[in-house]
Design brief:
This protein is an alpha+beta fold and 280 residues long. The chain has 2 domains: 180 residues, C8orf32 fold (Roll); 54 residues, no CATH class. 57% of the residues lie in helices and 11% in strands. The strands form 2 sheets. Strands 6-5-4-3-7 form a 5-stranded antiparallel β-sheet, sandwiched between helices. It has a two-stranded parallel ribbon with strand order 1-2. A hairpin with a 2-residue loop joins strand 3 and strand 4. The longest helix has 18 residues. The termini are far apart.
């Protein structure tokens, strides 16, 4: 039976991320609402995912081994739900918002991997997000061994040789796969990577308001990464908000007084303080 997600619509992204174990799809839908889709109800999409989970479980063969079930999850995503990577418009911000990925059935590797993780859990599998350089995949751990899947290409199961070929094809990397890259990524790390992708899209468009909303949520997700404070200050400045920019740079210098860029930031802070004073 599908869960009742009515309470999720009243949550904020900050509240979800503050949980001991944030729910990846819930948090991703919440940041989508706060950054770009203010009228969106996350509960609608969580119920859709529950419906997909019920469809998937109904198709799993009785007594299927874990690897067989993992392969079925990959097949279900690509062949029945028709979810695929958006090669043609890779840098479209919509590829990072789960509500849009669910509606349009296209997205970035990390967004599609998040849906794989959700459905794999519905199928009773121990699935993990794997943050390779320049690409994101998933692993299903069976008897201590990782079996990799790439929802962006609908590929799997893959071994480390396949991953090396995948990285060469998608990023041009020609070296060996570093074992450290295969460590499971916790929900907060996955959310941060999704937000970094969006930050890059909006900065590339000079959309300072949207970029600010993204970095505000990066600060919530990674409060110990003080560089986000500095970055948000400069984004506020580019967006014509000198007072907010000055306040954010002051916060950065308070926690990083000896940072390598502290002198540059102080110079920018003096200029922004003057601008803010003139506006008043």
């Amino acid at each position: 039976m599908a869960a009742d997600y009515a309470e999720v619509d009243a949550l904020t992204f900050a509240e979800e991320v503050s949980r001991d174990a944030p729910r990846l799809t819930v948090a991703a839908l919440l940041f989508a609402r706060e950054i770009a889709h203010p009228a969106m109800r996350p509960s609608r999409y969580l119920r859709r995912l529950d419906d997909w989970g019920e469809m998937l479980r109904a198709q799993l063969p009785q007594g299927a081994a874990d690897l067989e079930r993992a392969i079925e999850v990959a097949r279900f995503l690509s062949d029945e739900l028709l979810l695929r990577g958006n090669e043609d418009e890779y840098y479209d911000a919509a590829n990072s918002y789960l509500n849009e990925v669910i509606e349009r059935r296209v997205g970035l590797p990390i967004a599609l991997s998040s849906l794989f993780l959700h459905l794999a859990a519905d199928a009773g599998l121990a699935a993990e997000g794997i943050g390779l350089p320049g690409h994101f995949v998933v692993a299903v751990r069976i008897a201590g061994r990782q079996h990799f899947f790439d929802p962006f290409e609908g590929a799997g199961p893959l071994d480390t040789v396949d991953l090396r070929e995948l990285l060469q094809r998608r990023t041009g990397f020609r070296g060996s796969v570093d074992p450290d890259w295969l460590a499971p990524q916790p929900a907060r790390a996955i959310l941060a990577r999704m937000l970094f992708n969006l930050r890059g899209v909006y900065l590339g468009r000079n959309d300072w308001q949207a970029a600010a909303r993204v970095v505000e949520r990066l600060i919530v997700t990674q409060p110990d990464v003080h560089a986000h404070l500095r970055d948000l200050g400069f984004i506020y400045a580019r967006g014509g908000r000198p007072l907010s920019a000055a306040q954010m740079l002051q916060r950065y210098l308070l926690v990083e007084p000896d940072a390598e860029d502290a002198a540059m930031v102080r110079g920018s802070l003096d200029s922004l303080t003057e601008q803010a004073a003139r506006l008043n």
